[in-house]
Specification:
Number of domains: 1
Distance between the termini: 24 Å
Shape: globular
Strand order of the largest sheet: 2-1-5-3-4
Structural class: alpha+beta
Largest sheet: 5 strands, mixed
Number of strands: 5
Number of helices: 2
CATH superfamily: Beta-grasp domain
Radius of gyration: 12 Å
Strand content: 15-25%
């Protein structure tokens, strides 16, 4: 199982193992971290943006819908939406509000 490490702004690190295919949003919840979202996880609002610090290849490829949502909401191209990205390998993730 892939290992996902969540880095918080307080320097805390939470690491959990999740099955391949798990949404980053669900992995964060399992780690006890809140996820910002306003659209009910319908891949619309872009609030669940996360920074991938390590292991970019450990995520599913970015789908066209995610790219459109990020462009429409002015979200940096080098980030991912936790409601869209699925875990495929080991990675480290951070969010500005953790």
């Amino acid at each position: 199982m892939p290992s996902v490490c969540f880095a918080t702004s307080r320097g805390e690190r939470r690491e959990i193992d999740v099955p391949s295919g798990t949404l980053v949003l669900d992995a964060a919840r399992r780690a006890g971290l809140p996820m910002a979202r306003a659209c009910g996880e319908r891949q619309v609002c872009g609030r669940c943006v996360v920074e991938v610090r390590r292991g970019h290849s450990g995520l599913s490829p970015e789908a066209p819908r995610e790219t459109r949502v990020k462009a429409r909401n002015g979200i940096a191209r080098d980030t991912r939406l936790a409601c869209c990205a699925r875990v495929a390998g080991d990675l480290e993730i951070a969010a500005s509000y953790w």
